[in-house]
Design brief:
The protein is mainly alpha-helical. The chain is built from 46 helices and 5 strands. Strands 2-3-4-1-5 form a 5-stranded parallel sheet, with helices on both faces. The radius of gyration is 33 Å and the shape is globular. The C terminus is likely disordered.
Length: about 900
């Protein structure tokens, strides 16, 4: 190999990491012929003591969902029995190894990770994946998922892809190297090695400049140009268009071959690379003898070996691109005849469709059936491709429109949103049934959610409800759920509608009697009633819906994850126990099914419940886990977007303000108005902790005035405290009046405990003491330790101001110790200063930074502290057991432990508070 020192060093570092028990990922990106494949060959040659697994993407196989993954995993499938049952089933379904009806893409990813990690545990492994841009979408997603979950698995992955890899955006956040042309000196050296005769210096410089140092172009030109041209006697072509020149060179090389050889090459270009038996069967159908390959091998077009493959992928693509339509249809007809309908029905149907000259209902029906098979395997991009082609071949317009519509849905499910709108434009004019037109609107709205913003979705969902009328009550409620879900998150203003309009539609729609116990319908109706008719008309409905969900034997997530709606509704009636239980069960269901998007949202919701319970470290661990899963499935996270309230409790003012600024940008960009209310809530808590009551009041008032579900009620105790301390008795009285009306309707310990505290704050008589004690007693009965400590702090402050110092110390000391242990520094400092005023000294806590753990170390430590085994932790956190062992070793070293039994006690040291208390 000439040059490439930076690339070689990166490869060597990755190999060293794998040998040392760690993992590494590298993405090589560059134009065709730039040397990516040569770098993979170099990596293979240097991988001494490391097992090799190779995969090359093939353009003709992009339609086969999980086809590339099957080829990669084939040597390791004897280990599949070691996987957990769900992962076994998912992988067997994806690879078509078992008759299982459905395969979840993330369970397939977890199974692939476990399978490769298992093999690497016996011998470090290097996976080399070339031409990633030609992998089927499902295989690419799976391998990207695996790459993001690696840590300490003795496993290295090197991907090579063209510059247009951004089409998937799956590999954006991974370590990558742009492979450019060789520097001039290295390029001249390579060119001189490829030229047999004399090479003129000026000619060499011209070729190097014209090719930009592209190694393949240099080598091909060395053989393509004549000896006189290389010697500088005859002129060279000007300019040297590298990509076109290479393709043209390959086309000319193929065109010079005998007709039978050219037809065999076209057949090989369109056939699967892992089934040469099909190629030779199809060759027999066409009457092509085996000796047809000889001329291609002699010309250097094919490599002579066991695989008999194309020497370079560009040759394969140029052969197919140069073929006439007639010849393509001939070879596809032959491949159809050679394909076993029982073993590869999808490939056979595709070849039949490609052989069709015009509309063909029989071929379309075969493709439609093949799309069902692809969907059952989780191959949604293949399903979409089959359905799109089936639609093109369909004669009857209405049936054609239905297939275009189904293809749009499949593209949406696969994540390829760019393909959705053109297909809907083809489908909609010929859709006859209201339910089909409503489905089209729903698909377009869901695509808009990701493309332009959440605030456009509610109006589009209402359009779908109007289109559907009373044709399908179940679908109507699904649409209303998604409309309300989007509306309460978007908040006003929205595009073409308002939260009130959406709520009125939900209130006006009759309840469906066949709704399952876990249905979100009643919860949505309760939130709608709250918006249209006021709080007093919604409490009973929301509470009954929450009780029904808690009593349901099973819970299921829905299209728009349920946890956010549950949280908003439970917060609105101050029912912390319902929130913890229901969202905890949703998280458990998502975890068992590998539903990482829903799980990431459920964990974020649970993190807020941990903040209210004073468990700030546990909340941070849940946020970190949620971010980890969001990243694992390719979602772009916005840093600490969800942590504003956590940072406010921790007293990290600069971090709060940085996150709030991000929240404002994201709220505007994506139509997520709820983020602004969450930001104002965090700023209010921060300012209360710092004693800046006028500022706290300013942040609380907009939320109070808008009075949206959840935040409209959660802000009331903050507003009362801020207003009283700022001297604004009028505002405090208004907020207290609203709280009195609503808390008594809700009737929960949380609501009544906050009400008692706020009555005490506004009571200037001795009766305030009764209220404070009532608040403390009520809040002690529910998992709201932070609120309980706040009531004790306020009561202690009240006692000290009445010269009852010894009694004040009891409550101030308890509050201080709680805040201090949790790391709630501002409130701890408030309590400390009050204690000093009573004559008692409280020492400031000094952070013990030598015990700092990374987010993933903390996650693993918390799970181990709860008594889980390494295998259980790995399954729970979607990592490998070797990664768990790696993190636990670091935890033991940082905390000075020698036994797992010591972890729980160690996490009780200052700054730690134990693990998540939910059953997720």
């Amino acid at each position: 190999m000439v040059g490439r020192f930076a690339e070689r060093e990166a490869i060597e570092q990755l190999l060293d990491a794998a040998r040392d028990g760690l993992s590494g990922v590298l993405v090589l990106v560059g134009e065709a012929g730039i040397g990516k494949t040569r770098l993979l060959e170099h990596a293979a040659a240097q991988a001494t003591g490391i097992g090799l697994t190779r995969l090359v993407g093939v353009e003709a196989e992009q339609l086969l969902g999980y086809g590339a993954l099957h080829r990669l995993l084939r040597p390791h499938l004897n280990r599949i029995y070691r996987l957990p049952t769900r992962q076994q089933d998912a992988l067997n379904a994806a690879l078509g190894l078992a008759d299982i009806s459905h395969s979840d893409r993330y369970l397939v990813g977890l199974a692939t990770l476990a399978l490769l990690s298992s093999a690497a545990s016996e011998l470090p492994m290097l996976c080399l994946i070339d031409d990633v841009h030609w992998l089927d979408r499902e295989s690419a997603e799976t391998l990207a998922f695996v790459a993001r979950r690696l840590h300490a698995d003795s496993l290295g992955l090197i991907f090579a892809a063209r510059n247009d890899l951004a089409d998937h955006r799956l590999f954006d956040a991974m370590p990558s190297l742009h492979v450019g042309g060789l520097p001039a000196a290295d390029a001249r050296e390579l060119l001189s090695l490829a030229v047999n005769g004399h090479l003129d210096t000026a000619v060499a410089d011209s070729i190097v400049a014209g090719t930009g140092g592209n190694p393949l172009a240099l080598i091909e030109l060395a053989t393509h140009l004549g000896a006189e041209q290389l010697a500088g006697v005859a002129p060279m072509p000007e300019p040297l268009p590298v990509s076109r020149l290479l393709e043209e060179h390959f086309r000319q090389s193929v065109a010079a071959l005998p007709p039978d050889t050219r037809m065999l090459l076209l057949l090989m270009a369109a056939a699967p690379t892992d089934d040469m038996a099909v190629v030779w069967h199809a060759a027999g159908v066409l009457g092509l003898p085996a000796r047809s390959a000889v001329a291609a091998v002699e010309a250097g077009i094919l490599d002579h070996g066991a695989g008999l493959g194309f020497r370079h992928p560009l040759i394969r693509s140029s052969v197919y691109a140069a073929a006439s339509g007639h010849d393509r249809r001939r070879i596809h007809a032959a491949l159809e005849a050679a394909s076993d309908p029982a073993r590869v029905p999808d490939r056979r149907a595709w070849h039949r469709a490609q052989a069709a000259l015009g509309p063909d209902d029989a071929a379309a029906a075969d493709l439609d059936a093949a799309s069902d098979w692809a969907r059952a395997r989780g191959g949604y991009s293949a399903q979409a491709l089959f359905l799109s082609k089936a639609a093109e071949l369909t004669v009857e317009p209405a049936k054609r429109a239905e297939r275009y519509l189904a293809a749009a849905q499949a593209h949406l499910t696969s994540g390829d949103r760019a393909a959705v709108h053109p297909l809907l434009d083809l489908a909609v004019p010929a859709l006859r049934h209201p339910s089909a037109r409503a489905r089209a609107l729903r698909i377009r709205a869901t695509a808009e959610l990701f493309d332009t913003g959440n605030d456009r979705v509610p109006a589009m969902m209402l359009d779908a409800v109007a289109e559907l009328a009373d044709a399908d009550p179940r679908m109507t409620w699904e649409l209303l759920y998604e409309a309300m879900h989007a509306a309460v998150i978007a908040r006003d203003p929205m595009h073409r509608t308002t939260l009130a309009d959406v709520a009125k539609a939900a209130v006006a729609t009759p309840h469906r009697p066949d709704a399952p116990a876990w249905s979100p319908d009643e919860l949505i109706k309760g939130l709608a009633l709250r918006t249209v008719y006021g709080y007093e008309n919604s409490v009973a409905t929301i509470q009954e819906a929450l009780a029904k969900l808690r009593a349901s034997a099973e819970l299921h997530d829905v299209a728009s994850p349920f946890s956010i709606i549950v949280s908003l509704a439970a917060d609105d009636v101050w029912d912390i126990e319902a929130s913890v239980e229901i969202v905890g069960r949703l998280a458990a269901a998502d975890r068992s099914q590998g539903a990482l998007y829903g799980l990431s949202l459920s964990l974020s919701v649970l993190a807020y419940t941990e903040i209210r319970n004073g468990r700030l470290t546990a909340a941070d661990a849940l946020f970190a886990e949620a971010d980890d899963y969001a990243t694992a499935i390719g979602l772009t996270t916005q840093g600490d977007l969800n942590r504003a309230l956590l940072y406010a409790w921790m007293g990290r003012e600069s971090d709060v303000r940085a996150v709030v600024a991000t929240m404002d940008v994201v709220a505007t960009t994506y139509g997520l108005g709820m983020l602004r209310h969450l930001a104002l809530h965090a700023l209010c808590v921060l300012d209360l902790g710092m004693g800046r009551y006028d500022e706290a009041l300013r942040h609380a008032l907009p939320v109070y005035e808008e009075d949206v579900p959840s935040q409209g009620n959660l802000v009331l105790p903050l507003l009362v405290e801020a207003a009283v301390r700022a001297g604004d008795r009028h505002t405090a009285a208004l907020a207290l009046k609203r709280l009195e009306e609503r808390a008594q309707l809700a009737g929960t310990p949380w609501a009544l405990g906050l009400l008692a505290r706020c009555r005490a704050l506004t009571d200037e008589t001795a009766d305030a003491e009764i209220r404070y004690r009532e608040s403390i007693d009520l809040l002690a009965t529910v998992p709201l330790a932070a609120e309980h400590a706040r009531s004790r702090l306020l009561f202690g402050e009240w006692l000290r101001r009445r010269k009852r110092r010894s009694e004040a110390r009891i409550h101030l000391r308890a509050a201080y110790e709680s805040f201090d242990a949790w790391g709630a520094s501002l409130f701890a400092e408030r309590a400390r200063i009050e204690l000093l005023a009573t004559g008692e000294t409280a020492r400031r806590r000094v952070p013990e930074t030598r015990f700092d753990l990374t987010p993933q170390e903390r996650q693993v430590a918390l799970q181990a502290a709860s008594g889980l085994t390494n295998a259980e932790i790995a399954s729970r956190l979607f990592i490998t057991t070797s990664t768990v062992e790696f993190h636990l070793n670091k935890v033991f070293r940082k905390l000075g432990l020698t036994s797992r039994r010591q972890i729980a006690a160690a996490l009780g040291r200052p700054g730690f508070d134990g693990g998540p208390s939910t059953s997720d």
